[in-house]
From TrEMBL:
InterPro entries attached to this UniProt entry: UPF0324_pro
Keywords, ordered alphabetically: Cell membrane, Membrane, Transmembrane, Transmembrane helix
Species this protein is from: Polystyrenella longa
GO CC aspect terms: plasma membrane
Record has Transcription regulation as a keyword: no
UniProt protein name: Sulfate exporter family transporter
Polar residues composition bias: residue spans: 1-15
Annotated family: Belongs to the UPF0324 family.
Region (Disordered): 1-23
Subcellular location as annotated: Cell membrane
Superkingdom, natural source: Bacteria
Length: 530
């Protein structure tokens, strides 16, 4: 599940000082305004609705005629490409005409007010100025647009946090600093030479956060602004409008095999190695690390820790390992994939099934290319669906095989029900799928619908998604302290377990991704790509 532990209760087997992770409560209607996953959906829905309505209202009166002209041009392009000797100049001319028409029928009035920083060479201040359309035009300051991004983000996330736990004021006091760190990350990533080297903002955001947390430490007053999962989940709901249903279905079928076949095998194998080979004394620690590594990091760790009644410090260790290796894998894997000459599709599927955090998967995919990002996110979203299912079966296994029984033979503590699957299910995935369904319908039914939607996400929702992910990676850095993590790894066995499990995960996922995306479903994917 995606919620943080809501309480701890002492175990009957442990000393009173040891705290057990629990997820108190049952599903209720109040979850719709009390839980982070639901707020990610509501915020994503607000942003997408406003962004689309702005583009839709700005469309010209002759949009139907212009849309028909685009269809005609695309048909002519296909015919030219199928000719024995394709006329490349004619094809390019028609493509240029399509681009011009698309710009005229889908202007985005929100675009000037939402922006990222600009590329610069010698002066970082140039990052805050947009170059003129011609050499004679003076650069335009983008500071007002950055301030709009700040106030929109602060308002939306502050509202959600206030409704969830009443700590909106503490969040708003910390958020300006988090946002300034995100700006710094973007400035570093926008330098021309660095940008050409492909070192993107996620790495800088992570390093900025790590520098603070591992030197002076993250101040207590700043921690209310460290909302890693909230930022990521909201950004992923926005991504749903970009990955439309047709592509989601084509990529999703092989993705199911990668996510739902490999994940349980890796989970069970890692747990057995921890018990039988490494002889880890705490079964709950073993299970929490195994689920953390095999499913999707923090969310899976929290859900599984509650299911197997892990100690709070065991959950902290599992999350710490996940964050540390996520920071490494999200940058090392794209380098390895490029060095091996893998396709974007295969590389994206491999990363989607192995990198723990969903936001890190998106960032790693973007380092390879837009197609890799799309495939990686699709596989990871499918894998996220398993969180509730795995937590449910772990809970069943724990009460039947692991936890002690009373003198009468009855199982101590609450028994899991089918409701656990829904309660622990990452609800923000519904927002991602819902956005894909809604905007797929609009793209299919509205004149020039696909052009309108492309204008929407390129000019507004995708820009905000980039800022939200940047905020998330700053937050990951701020909550990762390697010294504290090292203190939790007693004897090194948890680290060895994670390394062994991730090695199995990498090997099996690569094989399954190759089999599904490069062999069995190769033709359908190639057809989608045109």
């Amino acid at each position: 599940m995606s919620e943080t532990p809501s309480g701890q209760t002492p175990s009957s087997n442990d000393s009173p000082s040891e705290e057990i992770v629990t997820t108190a409560g049952t599903p209720s209607w109040s979850d719709l305004y009390r839980k982070e996953d639901w707020w990610a959906i509501w915020l994503g829905a607000i942003i997408l609705t406003v962004s689309f309505l702005a583009v839709y209202a700005a469309r010209p009166a002759d949009v139907v005629e212009q849309s028909a002209r685009i269809d005609t041009l695309r048909s002519e392009i296909r015919e030219l490409k199928e000719a024995d000797t394709p006329d490349t100049e004619a094809i390019q001319a028609k493509r240029d005409e399509v681009v011009l028409i698309e710009k005229s029928i889908a202007p985005n009035p929100v675009k000037p007010w939402l922006t990222k920083l600009q590329k610069w060479e010698s002066s970082p201040l140039d990052a805050f100025y947009s170059p003129g359309k011609t050499d004679d035009d003076a650069p335009t300051s983008i500071v007002p647009a950055i301030l709009v991004v700040f106030f929109v983000s602060a308002l939306l996330f502050g509202l959600g946090i206030q409704c969830m736990d009443g700590k909106g004021a503490a969040f708003l006091r910390a958020f300006p600093v988090i946002f300034l760190l995100a700006i710094l990350s973007y400035v570093l990533a926008s330098q021309a030479s660095i940008k050409a080297a492909g070192i993107e903002y996620p790495l800088w955001a992570l390093l900025v956060g790590l520098l603070i947390s591992n030197t002076i430490g993250t101040p207590a007053w700043l921690k209310p602004g460290v909302k890693t999962e909230f930022y990521i989940k909201t950004g992923l709901v926005l991504l749903g409008a970009k990955i439309l249903l047709e592509r989601l279905l084509i990529l999703g079928v092989p993705g199911v095999f990668v996510a739902w076949v490999v994940t349980p095998i890796v989970l069970v194998s890692t747990y057995m190695i921890g018990q039988r080979v490494l002889k880890i004394s705490s079964k709950s620690l073993n299970m929490t690390i195994s689920a953390d590594m095999s499913v999707c990091g923090v969310s899976a760790a929290i859900a599984t820790a509650a299911a197997c009644r892990a100690k709070k410090e065991e959950l902290s260790l599992a999350i710490g390992l996940s964050l540390a290796f996520t920071a490494i894998m999200m940058f090392v894997m794209p380098i390895i994939i490029k060095a091996l000459g893998m396709s974007e599709v295969l590389g994206g599927a491999w990363m989607g099934g192995t990198i723990d955090a969903t936001g890190a998967v998106a960032a790693a995919g973007s380092l390879l290319g837009p197609l890799a990002e799309e495939v990686a996110i699709t596989v990871k979203m499918i894998q996220n669906i398993l969180i509730g299912v795995i937590a449910f079966f772990v809970a069943i296994y724990w009460v039947i095989k692991v936890e002690p029984r009373s003198a009468t033979g009855a199982i101590d503590g609450p028994q899991p029900t089918v409701w656990e699957i829904w309660y622990r299910f990452p609800k923000f995935v519904l927002g991602f799928i819902g956005a894909s369904l809604v905007f797929s319908y609009l793209a299919a039914t509205l004149p020039a619908g696909d052009t309108l939607i492309t204008s929407m996400y390129k000019g507004s929702s995708d820009v905000l998604r980039g800022w939200f992910f940047c905020l998330a990676f700053v937050s990951i850095g701020l909550e990762t302290n390697f010294k504290e993590l090292a203190g939790l790894i007693e004897g090194g066995k948890p680290l060895v377990l994670y390394l062994i499990g991730q090695s199995i995960n990498l090997a099996l996922t690569l094989f399954m991704a190759w089999l599904m995306f490069e062999v069995i479903f190769k033709d359908s994917i190639a057809s989608m790509l045109g």
